[in-house]
């Protein structure tokens, strides 16, 4: 079985988390929906703005989701964070938006505060088991893109490097097996630490880390809002609750 592997990086990134409005926060890592958006931009598929235009014009043939999501939601992706312990530094950026419609405040000047990720980088694996995945691989291998890919917004250009096709092996999860998962994994798909299913034996000679965050994994059909799940990045040996995983070289990854 084959997968496309490449490194996705940039000087900065901003994946907006709508938790508060006074300061715009960013998710700590790229999430699945944002990555589908990048693939959609590469292939030239329409996004949210096109769907909003269709809503305003009350077109009868409007789809439940943006085009990129309709066409790409079934592809399988594994994301490996290259940040230290899965984490990237964040820096607060403050700038003025002085266009006339930016703010109702006196002078029409809006002070925007955003947290940006600094020098983010991820290794992305795309399972080549369907036509859309193979189409993405063809575009990326041949350095083709209909629209420029961004890391969240157009302030953050995306770099795609180290593109290759790799062989992967599907492995059935053993009930008594504890393994280290290199990629991001849903917290619900690994055993609960409180049940003592984590094994530290193989990690005694290295620093242990476990990073978790609620990240978008899909869009709701009704409002196209993010549906989030707790995602974990760890170098601990864990009991995987999924039926199977994949081995690439000497590393274990899971696809979603």
Automatic annotation (TrEMBL):
<dbReference type="InterPro" id="IPR013421">
    <property type="entry name" value="CRISPR-assoc_prot_Cas5_HALMA"/>
</dbReference>
<protein>
    <submittedName>
        <fullName>Type I-B CRISPR-associated protein Cas5</fullName>
    </submittedName>
</protein>
<keyword id="KW-0812">Transmembrane</keyword>
<feature type="transmembrane region" description="Helical">
    <location>
        <begin position="30"/>
        <end position="48"/>
    </location>
</feature>
<dbReference type="GO" id="GO:0051607">
    <property type="term" value="P:defense response to virus"/>
</dbReference>
<keyword id="KW-0472">Membrane</keyword>
<keyword id="KW-0051">Antiviral defense</keyword>
<dbReference type="InterPro" id="IPR013422">
    <property type="entry name" value="CRISPR-assoc_prot_Cas5_N"/>
</dbReference>
<keyword id="KW-1133">Transmembrane helix</keyword>
